[in-house]
Amino acid sequence: MHKENTIDHSLRATWQAVAKMYNEQAAKHNSTMATAFVLLNIDFENGTPSTALGPLMGMEPTSLSRILKTMEEKGAIYREKNPDDGRSVLIKLTDYGKEMRKVSRETVITFNEAVRAFVSEEKLNHFFEVTEKINQLIAERAIFNKAKSKAV
Description:
The chain has 152 residues and is mainly α. Helices cover 62% and strands 8% of the residues.
């Protein structure tokens, strides 16, 4: 089997192209895709507990800590004691962070609209069904178990 015909190669190559595209757009605003991703996951009005951000984004705490430190240095976020839980901190957007979040959101919307202009709704639905099934198989640890389930 050629690597170009494997599912994992296609997923990885496509994601790398998407990530490169997003990083190029983010660089125009002195930012990164990772920073934009964090901005999009912080509640616009109320902020988000720092302990919730990592799991929300599937990111390791050490990587997230570095990104948050950089974002704070650039003035995109600030930390505030959580009034509901004195042990945790809320990550909140500054006015600059809110503007950058809007830019990030528009970039994601533009990408999605462009893809939707060239790919039918039916094909997109199939794409989402396939990615959902892959995630389900992985979550259920069904990929490398001896008992294989039938294709649906």
